[in-house]
Design a protein that fits this description.
With about 200 residues, the protein is mainly beta. The protein has one domain. The protein contains two helices and 15 strands. Strands 1, 4, 5, 6, 7, 8, 9 and 10 form an eight-stranded mixed beta sheet that branches. Strands 2, 3, 11, 14 and 15 form a five-stranded antiparallel beta sheet that branches. Strand 6 and strand 7 form a beta hairpin.
């Protein structure tokens, strides 16, 4: 048994569109993509025997009960109601069929996974979604110096999001936009390829 949200908030960075992996997205359209998860180092991980589940808690962050699955070398796949992947995991998460509770961020697959593995070498992980709404990050960028290098980061003291109709990744926020796609997971079997992604 699994417990899933009715709407899945999924993060999208503008560079993924700029790289040519996907076109811009708009409200109401259907899209096919797989999902990459990000685990923050130091986030608690607790072994458990609860139902597999995913519960949104903030932006594209989820509290999950996840189950690792066998997968291709160098990649980790978790079942959280959908299959989602990452290239880097702590040893605890490598144990097959050992469920655990933690927090993850979910984002659209930037195509790193499918560039490394052929569809026949992995489980079907491309899902069909309907985009219900799109949010764009409004927190301004601030310049900081890290190890002598100037970098731009979001001002954490001014978080915020605005609703937009369509992404314009090459122009929104001077090409540095971050989005949340709020998606309905459609009742379509997962696939190994995407008609939305560009070859």
């Amino acid at each position: 048994m699994t417990r899933q949200p009715s709407t899945w908030p999924i993060h999208l960075s503008s560079w993924i569109i700029q790289d040519g992996s996907y076109p811009d997205f708009q409200i109401g359209e259907m899209a096919e993509f797989s999902v990459e998860f990000h685990w923050k180092r130091g986030e608690p991980v607790e072994l458990c025997k609860s139902y597999i589940s995913a519960q949104p808690v903030a932006s594209a962050e989820y509290e999950v009960v996840a189950e690792p699955l066998p997968c291709a070398e160098g990649t980790r796949i978790l079942g959280i109601g959908i299959l989602t992947y990452c290239h880097d995991l702590p040893p605890l998460m490598e144990l097959p069929h050992s469920r655990f509770r933690t927090r993850l961020n979910l984002g659209i697959d930037p195509f790193g996974f499918w560039e490394c593995h052929t569809p026949t070498a992995v489980l079907p992980m491309v899902y069909t979604w309907r985009i219900e709404s799109i949010l764009q990050q409004t927190a301004p960028h601030v310049e900081t110096v890290i190890n002598g290098t100037r970098v731009l980061n979001r001002d954490a003291s001014k978080p915020g999001w605005k609703t937009i109709i369509r992404t314009d990744a090459h122009h929104d926020d001077n090409g540095r936009a971050e989005y949340i796609l709020r998606c309905e997971l459609l009742d379509v079997p997962a696939k190994g390829t995407s008609v939305t992604a560009r070859p």
